[in-house]
């Protein structure tokens, strides 16, 4: 029988003890017959030693984040603490569904792209929406043009050598670690692309995000991304999308820079819908929270 590769699963967590236990249990219950180790990294919270586990083929190791505070540093702490051939990620509020790991490892052992992703099932306030990317959605030009949220970090499994030597660690300089997953996905797409298991194999629970309403952090992270990735500004649709998100966040803040950003968005691409959502907020026709709620119920973001 061919030896199955070892897998490290990095779960970064911050004060969600019940959810992280569900995430760990779903990883340990995978029907993958190879060795699996969960590296649970507590970011700015006391590590819960009760989570440690050692069993045949399954291990849970609890760590504190010893790098920069935030999700990016926590993910990198977990990556560097492991030594398995494959590295996977799972957010502490997400749940892997049956068969996920087995199906992804089967793709990776065949060779080809260094990273494998699956579809997701978005759960929000009693609604459940399956989101499965098409292969074309995972190509770099498409990822640049639109944030393909189906390419979710909790679905990623990647070869360690490619992660460390080619793609690189998670960028810890991104303000608030906001969008660190998208930044990493762009680099993964440029470094060989993705295998795709076209099924919703991760349950993504929205509503408890620590980032979705931190408007100032969102603005700073968008500015960082535009400066880091010239491809955004080179694509009119991509540039307008990010400017529209910036205008939306500034409108939510009632920041006086919102209107100039809104005007810039419309000049860049008149049909960018986020500019008109930002305008509705500025005119007090609705609120950012209300618009986010509507989008989330449909399995979308802003």
Residue runs with pLDDT of under 50 for 5 or more positions: none
Number of helices: 12
Structural class category: alpha/beta
Rg, rounded, reads 19 Å
What is the overall pLDDT average? Answer: 93
Kindly, what is the distance between the CA atoms of the first and last residues, rounded to a whole number of angstroms?
A: 48 Å
Highest-level CATH class of the largest domain? Alpha Beta
Beta-strand level of the residues, as a percent range? Answer: 15-25%
Basic shape: globular
Please tell me the total number of domains: 2
Helix content: 40-55%
Element order: H for helix, E for strand: EHEEEHEEHEEHEHHEHHHHHH
Q: Report the major sheet.
A: 10 strands, mixed
CATH fold-level assignment of the largest domain:
Spore Coat Polysaccharide Biosynthesis Protein SpsA, Chain A
- Identify the CATH architecture of the largest domain: Alpha-Beta Complex
What is the assigned CATH homologous superfamily of the largest domain?
Answer: Spore Coat Polysaccharide Biosynthesis Protein SpsA, Chain A
